[in-house]
Amino acid sequence: MAYVGPAGEWIGLNVETPQGKNDGTVQGKSYFSCDEDHGESDQSSTTPGESSGEGTVGLKVLALEISIVASERKRKAEEVELENVAKRLERVDRWGGELTEDIEVKTEKMGQVRGDEEAEKQGTEVNEGER
């Protein structure tokens, strides 16, 4: 927990991954300092210092909830990245298949041309042998 507001109504967290919303600055006011997208702020549902002690527990629960939200965002971002990689691999695979087909067609044509050239050579040799 990087920041607790004076009445405990707001808390700020410095999260480990760049899945936060800020750098500790909210609406132009700096509450705490952390790397860009590593700060997360939220309203506390309880006030610290309540006689029952629930305020401190509430802040810890809220901090945990924010951490879970940040982890969920990271997981979703990783899923999107994996989908993008899969799509790129699919395109590469498709392109590789098309390239393989092109090579096979061109190789076949080259074989036909060589066969025609060989047949033409043999025909010429036969014709010259007949003279």
Helix content: 55-70%
Number of strands: 5
- Bulk shape: rod-shaped
**Tally of alpha and pi helices:** 1
Q: Which class of secondary structure composition applies to the elements? A: alpha+beta
Radius of gyration: 35 Å
Q: SSE string, helix = H, strand = E?
A: EEEEEH
Summed over residues and divided by their number, the pLDDT gives a mean of 76
Strand content: 5-15%
How are the strands ordered across the major sheet? 1-2-5
CATH domain fold name of the domain at 3-75: SH3 type barrels
Describe this structure in words.
The chain has one helix at residues 54-130, and strands spanning 3-4, 10-14, 25-26, 29-30, 39-43. By secondary structure, the protein is an alpha+beta fold. It has a domain at 3-75: Roll (SH3 type barrels). The strands form two sheets. Strands 1-2-5 form a three-stranded antiparallel beta sheet, covered by helices on one side. Strands 3-4 form a two-stranded antiparallel ribbon. The chain is rod-shaped and about 100 Å long.
Describe this structure in a few short sentences.
By secondary structure, this protein is α+β, with helices and mostly antiparallel strands.
Topology:
Elements: E1 3-4, E2 10-14, E3 25-26, E4 29-30, E5 39-43, H1 54-130
Antiparallel strand pairs: 1-2, 2-5, 3-4
What labels describe this entry?
131 residues, alpha+beta, SH3 type barrels, two-stranded antiparallel sheet, 1 helix
